[in-house]
Amino acid sequence: IFFRHMTSKNDIFNKRVATATLVFVVVILFMFVGKRPTKQDWATCPRADPLPAAGKKVLVTGAAGFIGSHVAKSAAELGLQVIAIDDMSGGFWENVPQHPNVLFFKGDCKDAAFVEKIFSKHGPFEYVYHLAAYAAEGLSHFIPSYNYRNNLVGSVEILNFAIKDKVKCFVFTSSIAVYGSVPEDMREDVNPTPEDPYGVSKFAMELHLKSAHEMHGMEYVIFRPHNVYGPNQNIADKYRNVVGIFMNEIIHGKPLTIFGDGEQSRSFSYIDDVAPIIAKAPLLPHARNHIFNVGADDSY
Questions:
Q1: What are phi and psi of 291, to 5 degrees?
Q2: Annotated catalytic residue 148
């Protein structure tokens, strides 16, 4: 009414005042109605309330490895009862969490008899955290069969039993390797185009999980960790994680291996900023059936 009244007059000044007022009102409405919630807003949102964890039994694979050992520990600290497994092909006994809520068994995810025994004797499991993998992107070009048996066949074996036993949520750690070569201004909406067998196996499992959700109703949460470093990582592995490679070379008094002109930059994610997020994922119903990139934003 105000705008119609002001503009009905043959007065340029009144029309300008009316226009400025309308713009001001629109801006105010945008600021308050269209405002994105802050972190505090999300924290107070009812859907952010986690499900209770105490006493729920879960399975964590790859629990003697780098990220897997930390996820097992974080899950135990949440009050979950953790059955932890690892074939020790790339893990270390000292990595296995020494926590009263963690019970460890040595075994291979590719071994259907072992997996069946774990599910039948120590289940039923509320959630499964699948972190067991042979993570070697560059090397995977030369050992594709070994890569697919460990990273895809083993993963499908675990998922098969999870579906059969009606596990409520399957948490899978994929990899940034699913993206292949990406532009410097990487965005969340970049389509995965893996370039090595490791990335292909991870992306294939992502697709299989989506299929399992549509066919069997299996809920899932997928994480793509970015350049994680920290305690328990294998610094003797020369095929992954530049932080571990540099540490090993410094310890042995060797020159740091630099490719190209050394001007490359990467973001690095500390394990304690990553593992607790993965551990909490199935306790947050609104996180289910989504894929999350988890890692730092700043490059060095």
A1: -115, 135
A2: no
